[in-house]
Amino acid sequence: LLNKFQNLPPSPFPVLPIIGHLYLFKNPLHRCLSKLSDRYGPVLFLQFGSRPVLLVSSSSAAEECLTKNDIVFANRPHLLAGKHLGNNYTNLTYASYGDHWRNLRRIATLEILSLHRVQMLSHIRADEVRSLIRRLLSSDRNQVVEMKPLFLELMLNNMLRMVADKRYYGESVEDVEEAKKVHKIVTDGNLLGGTSNIGDFLPLPKWIFGGGYENSLIELQKRRVSFMQSLIDERRKILTSDGSSISKEKTKCMIDVLLSLQESDPEYYTDEIIRGLMQTLITSGTDSSAGTMEWAMSLLLANPEVIKKAQNELDHCVGNDRLVNESDLPKLPYLNCIIKETTRLYPAGPLIPHESSEECTVAGFRIPRGTILLINLWAIQQDPKLWDEPTRFKPERFKESEGIMRDGFKFMPFGSGRRGCPSENLAMRMLGLTLASLIQCFEWELGNEKMDMIEKLGISLCKANSLQAKCQPRPIMSDVLSRI
Ligand code: HEM
């Protein structure tokens, strides 16, 4: 009644004192919130403890938020993780909309993730995929391979080589102790960054809730800062060893580019800014891409006819006398449909978080300033009103669509608007090349009798239990495989 009077969107009843609607929530949150929307409507007003939340689960309301109200909703919610891991909300992912965020976003898109630079570093991705293939070739034919760590290490090597020209996993890693340290920094980051912290929503003293969590964040951030700084120092030493200035021609990785910018504008491009950008790319880039790879392979193993079709496409368009490469990807529309269908069912960011900086209206309702917006992308991408057999894995449904990873506001795994993912191009290359290579080179089967598709929502939407698979080199590719 009160909501109606204030023209707020409907709310499930009752709203309890202090905890609000928190009593309704279970993991995984995107599924639970989707059920609430089915029951109470696609535009809901919730109380996460003391914080007001607008939950949007229809494509038309999402469109309104990300077009007409895109600037109003271009902030991120301030949560404890962003305070510590996001360097007091100053990192690209966590920063509020404004000049600072715009600058970081410009540097990321123009200097680091531009088409040109991503293209220039394609040899890194090709190298790392070859290294993964060698690891799979060296495993015993009947051995069950756990895929999750392989994908995580692949994506980490990709990102760390792009960022710092260093690899930490797999073959030819010199310092094993250092590699272990890096692994721990990343996995702790995924764990803590993805933990929901009740203390963010309840106005209770820290010593009751969240004290231990906050201490872990602070301790992790110390380790991260010291690791990132050591990489910067190392690159600075290499680049300036001949006493000359850092010209653009000398730059091999992202830190180099940022250090060359630091030479011309030391006040803005401080080491702190460089560390923040490094950290953002490594944390946003690895878990999301590795998780999506694992979902894609799981769906393929559960649907062997789809692998066959993709193999036919590869044999036809690329052949069997060389490995697939990134420039083949536009010629592989069925592979593209597989990636789309994977990210439809398992979007890495199933609940996209924004926050309103002023009052606005959505679906005719009044949305107060400071409201957290959660767009339930997972629910929208499986909305039975928009999708035929929404829960089925059917890559063919994207047959008529073009290469782009968007279909209005009903399919947008990389988000949309100002805060949309700046790295779609890089992610699609990493996913496309890895998946294509695994399909081209191996026959796959499940490693255990039955596969589960249980979801776990951490920093991104991951498979709770690692995919177990068996693979055999395809005889038709034996010549190529003997040379890599
Ligand atoms: C399968 C892979 C990926 C998916 C599905 C994905 C998806 C997303 C989504 C849904 C968002 C939020 C959009 C919004 O708030 O409206 C996002 C933001 C972001 N992504 Fe990605 N992403 C992927 C890979 C990557 C990679 C590889 C990088 C970097 C190397 C990256 C960097 C970022 C950053 C920095 C943001 C925050 C941008 C901002 O707040 O301005 N992502 N991504």
Automatic annotation (TrEMBL):
<dbReference type="GO" id="GO:0016020">
    <property type="term" value="C:membrane"/>
</dbReference>
<keyword id="KW-0472">Membrane</keyword>
<feature type="binding site" description="axial binding residue">
    <location>
        <position position="421"/>
    </location>
    <ligand>
        <name>heme</name>
    </ligand>
</feature>
<keyword id="KW-0503">Monooxygenase</keyword>
<keyword id="KW-0479">Metal-binding</keyword>
<keyword id="KW-0349">Heme</keyword>
<dbReference type="InterPro" id="IPR050651">
    <property type="entry name" value="Plant_Cytochrome_P450_Monoox"/>
</dbReference>
<keyword id="KW-0732">Signal</keyword>
<comment type="similarity">
    <text>Belongs to the cytochrome P450 family.</text>
</comment>
<dbReference type="GO" id="GO:0020037">
    <property type="term" value="F:heme binding"/>
</dbReference>
<dbReference type="InterPro" id="IPR036396">
    <property type="entry name" value="Cyt_P450_sf"/>
</dbReference>
<keyword id="KW-0560">Oxidoreductase</keyword>
<dbReference type="Pfam" id="PF00067">
    <property type="entry name" value="p450"/>
</dbReference>
<protein>
    <recommendedName>
        <fullName>Cytochrome P450</fullName>
    </recommendedName>
</protein>
<dbReference type="GO" id="GO:0004497">
    <property type="term" value="F:monooxygenase activity"/>
</dbReference>
<dbReference type="GO" id="GO:0005506">
    <property type="term" value="F:iron ion binding"/>
</dbReference>
<keyword id="KW-0408">Iron</keyword>
<dbReference type="InterPro" id="IPR001128">
    <property type="entry name" value="Cyt_P450"/>
</dbReference>
<dbReference type="GO" id="GO:0016705">
    <property type="term" value="F:oxidoreductase activity, acting on paired donors, with incorporation or reduction of molecular oxygen"/>
</dbReference>
<dbReference type="InterPro" id="IPR002401">
    <property type="entry name" value="Cyt_P450_E_grp-I"/>
</dbReference>
